[in-house]
Amino acid sequence: MDNSKQAKAQKSPSGSLSKSQKKPVAPSVPVAHPPYGSAALKPKKKVGLIVGIISGVLILILAIVAALLYFLWWQNPQKIVTDAVVNTMTTKKAVVNGKMTVIASNDSKIELNIKSAADSPKTKTDVEAKITLKNVSKTVNLKAAVVTDQDGTIYVKLDGMRKLVESVVSLAIDANIPSSTYEVSPSLKQQVEAVKKQIISQLEEKVSKIDGKWLKTTAEDIANNNTDIKCSAEIVKKLQNDSKARKEIADIYRQNSFLIIKDTKIDDRNGGRGFEIDLNSDEAVAKAKDFSKALESTSIGKDIKNCTKDARHNNGSVNKTVRSNGTLKIWADVNSHALKAVEIKSKGKDSSASLSLDIDTSKTESIDIPSNAASLKSVVEELFKGMSNSSVSQSA
Asked: Residues of the chain with pLDDT > 90: what percent?
């Protein structure tokens, strides 16, 4: 009995409290707290927004400046032409294809088809020549190949020399015999033809040593104790091998660019924009004189000055600029400013000439130096020796 009462007392300890001691418990209400970190994020978001706006504005300004530079400076026609000329002076490789035509007053014509490649310091050029003589209704074809190496040695090969000799002999003899002579003496024509064959036969033996054969010559051979020629050959060799000397000239030209644009309304060609150059304006002539004067301070200019000191002594000065009666057009890539084409036309009192070239400075071709070339000097000396001996034996 006592044990059950104690258990009830343990189960309800609060039951021993009086009614006055019991208090109502207030309901639990959650306390509102600001989101964590919200106070710190608000200023950071504002700073990030401002930085983003400023960056966007700067990028926009830079884009506008770049666009203005591209269209007003980089796309400036005069800069395109100047850069094209400078790039050509300093380039180490190129492929060139073109045509040159010379017309005489008697309508005789020389046409040259040109294919050339450069892989500094080596170059090669192939030329197909067609010579049309109107007064005698004669056409002569001749092919020539020229290769230069790093030492300045020139290798030459001529094809078609036999046909050329036949034509020259026939023209030389026919020019001295009026056609009316054959009418008076028909047998004379047969005699003349026999003489032609005899001369051609003698020359063919000599020409066979040249026709289709590689021959080589050096600056010393060409000069043949002529100091002016030797000096000029050394300058060409230096230009060919010395990139620093070429850059020096290019820098001088950039400061004194005398190829001033006359007209930009030229059709595109070879992927380039066309420009006609003003050759005769006072500004162009003045800039050409400034370039010539500034060139004297370069290493090449000093070499030229030494080579031409005799000419300057006799003529007073070689620094003279002559106005041209021809036209010059240049085509250049508007993006890379690489030279793409050149066209030159000139007209004199008795003749006219034109040169048209397509140029690609982004590539080159394989250039092989002939290994079996004979000395041009030795071959020519042998030819003249043989001819003199032949003439002596005939006179005897």
From this structure: 40
The first and second tokens of residue 87, run together, are: 């790039």
Long-range contacts formed by 354-357: CB under 8 A, 24+ apart: 354/100, 354/101, 355/98, 355/99, 355/100, 356/98, 356/99, 356/100, 357/96, 357/97, 357/98, 357/114
Single pTM value for the model: 0.73
Over residues 248-279, the pLDDT tens digits come to 999 999 999 999 999 999 999 999 999 999 98
Edge-first strand listing for the sheet containing 351-360:
260-269, 272-278, 327-332, 339-347, 351-360, 93-104, 109-119, 122-133, 138-148, 154-159, 214-217, 374-375
Tell me the two tokens of residue 342. 């050149």
How sure is the predictor about 341, in pLDDT bands with cuts at 50, 70 and 90? Answer: very high
> How far apart are the C-alpha atoms of 57 and 51, rounded to whole Å?
10
pLDDT higher than 90, residue 213: yes
Closest by alpha carbon to 109, among 128, 127, 131, 136?
131
- Distance from the Cα of residue 64 to its chain's centroid: 33
Pairing of strands 351-360, 339-347: antiparallel
> Rounded to the nearest 5°, which phi and psi values hold at 78?
-65, -35
What is the number of other CB atoms lying within 10 angstroms of the CB of residue 172? 11
Q: Is the dihedral of CA 330, 318, 354, 124 positive or negative?
A: negative
Distance, in Å, from the CA atom of 145 to the CA atom of 294, rounded to the nearest integer, reads: 36
Map residue 125 onto helix, strand or coil.
Answer: strand
- What is the rounded CA–CA span in Å between residue 30 and residue 348? 107
